[in-house]
Design brief:
Keywords: ATP-binding, DNA-binding, Nucleotide-binding, Phosphoprotein, Transcription, Transcription regulation. Pfam families: AAA_lid_14, HTH_8, Response_reg, Sigma54_activat. With about 450 residues, the protein is an alpha/beta fold. The two termini are about 45 Å apart.
Length: about 450
């Protein structure tokens, strides 16, 4: 177990100084504040394993701080500190939720022993939580993989979850961006607070402002009552803004103001409402390019991109495919009550050779289909989707053919690229048009010409 992160809370500077020196020498990560109000701000903003807290302080005393920690379900373990002979205060601290207490003046060995016991307790709690989660090796908050890119991703998510900093998650469609965002929330001090998610590209522009910020009665024709926006619903928790690159420019400036000031104003309202929300955003676009193109505000991009987490596409971690197949087979067996025992050798070779433009989501859908249609104890090649059976050979067959007509070859190549773009974007034609660098209208005509209306639509 890593050394504890300890917050010292005491209004006496010499006590803070002495404890900081002692604990840093023992290898702990330490910070110190002078009163309970500052401590509470720090506990809400960061993940602290332990707080050494004096019971008597100005502004907010130790007992009030313990009450706030319990009320807000902050995971930090609190150890009270009280002057020798003031045992009643120490006992009261234990009753309110402190783990232990230490008498002043301190004895070095007593402090270190108390911390050692707290560390052992935290280790047991984390082991028990891991057992209750039931996640196998290579599975992290629903994300699956043991490859180097995934191990690095899991470590990054664990680190950034501790802090309130805004996170921007990037990656292709189907790589698991929402799972990564949920992991940030679940592993954070806000885990027991609201998790609210919205797809910025799925809500019409004229409704998105009300959805995010709320409205007051009479703000527009259908506003028959006051409505809480998603920011207010996510107060003290996490708001996940999926497909942030699709947010209309008119709302980008309002989102920026909320991130800067920590306040929202409902549509039609006249007062600002404070909100404490950790924002996690996701996009499959290169937001830097969208900034250069003038489609996304540069100042909002930098405000969102405080911490960037990129999810690798499946083709860049092919060594995880076998593990993912086993995971999805087990998952579908439990969900559907089936007893499929993996995939055949032939089917696995086809799966490993396929490029997976739809990434993990496409693989999951493929395995679910295989479990449902399997004719025996294993998924065989006959029940794999036709696009996967043909997928990797299609371009090679095109170039290996004896066809020399530029017109016909261009049409075949165009059909293949359009289908791949639709598969990669899950059928989202707006995104596919951008990937293909053609207009949305042109894409619609070509989809009809090539009979690709259902491609990418699950």
């Amino acid at each position: 177990m890593e050394k504890l992160r300890i917050l010292i809370v005491d209004d006496e500077e010499n006590i803070r100084h002495m404890l900081s020196i002692l604990l840093r020498k023992e290898g702990y990560e330490v910070s110190a504040v002078g009163d309970g109000e500052e401590a509470l701000k720090s506990l809400l903003a960061q993940q602290w394993d332990l707080a050494l807290c004096d019971v008597r302080m100005p502004k907010m005393g130790g007992l009030e701080l313990i009450d706030a920690v319990v009320e807000r379900d902050i995971s930090t373990t609190v150890i009270a500190m009280s002057a020798f002979g003031n045992r009643e205060m120490a006992v009261e601290a234990l009753k309110r939720g402190a783990y232990d207490y230490i008498d002043k003046p301190f004895k070095r060995d007593e402090i270190l022993l108390t911390l050692a016991k707290a560390e052992e307790r935290l280790q047991l709690k984390r082991e028990n939580a891991s057992l209750r989660g039931g996640e196998a090796d290579g599975v992290f908050q629903g994300l699956v993989g043991s490859s180097e890119p995934m191990r690095a991703l899991f470590e990054t998510l664990s680190k950034v979850a501790r802090y309130k900093s805004t996170v921007l998650i990037t990656g292709e469609s189907g790589t698991g961006k929402e799972l990564a965002a949920r992991a940030v929330h679940t592993l954070s001090p806000r885990a027991q607070k609201p998790w609210v998610a919205v797809n910025c590209g799925a809500i019409p522009e004229n409704l998105l402002e009300s959805e995010l910020f709320g409205h007051v009665r009479g703000a527009f024709t259908d506003a028959t009552h006051d409505k809480l926006g998603l920011f207010e619903q996510a107060h003290e928790g996490t708001l996940f803004l999926d497909e942030i690159g699709e947010m209309p420019p008119s709302l980008q400036v309002k989102l920026l103001r909320v991130l800067q000031e920590g306040e929202v104003r409902r549509v039609g309202g006249t007062r600002n409402i404070p909100v404490d929300v950790r924002v996690v955003a996701a996009t499959l676009h290169d937001l830097g390019e969208r900034v250069e193109e003038g489609h996304f505000r540069e100042d909002l991009y930098y405000r969102l991109n405080v911490i960037n987490v990129t999810l690798p596409p499946l083709r860049e971690r092919a060594e995880d495919i076998g593990e993912l197949v086993r995971y999805f087979v087990d998952k579908q067996n439990k969900r559907l009550g089936t007893a499929i025992n993996g995939v055949s050798a032939e089917a696995m070779k086809i799966i490993l050779d396929y490029a997976w433009p739809g990434n993990v989501r496409e693989l999951q859908n493929c395995i679910e289909r295989g479990v449902v249609l399997a004719n025996g104890p294993k998924i065989d090649a006959s029940v794999l989707p036709q696009r996967i059976l043909e997928g990797n050979d299609e371009l090679q067959q095109l170039f290996d053919s004896d066809e020399l007509s530029i017109k016909k070859m261009s049409a075949d190549l165009e059909r293949i690229l359009i289908r791949r773009a639709l598969e990669k974007t899950g059928g989202n034609r707006t995104h596919a048009a951008k990937l293909l660098e053609i207009s949305h209208r042109t894409l619609l005509y070509k989809i009809k010409d090539y009979d690709l209306e259902t491609v990418g639509v699950e």
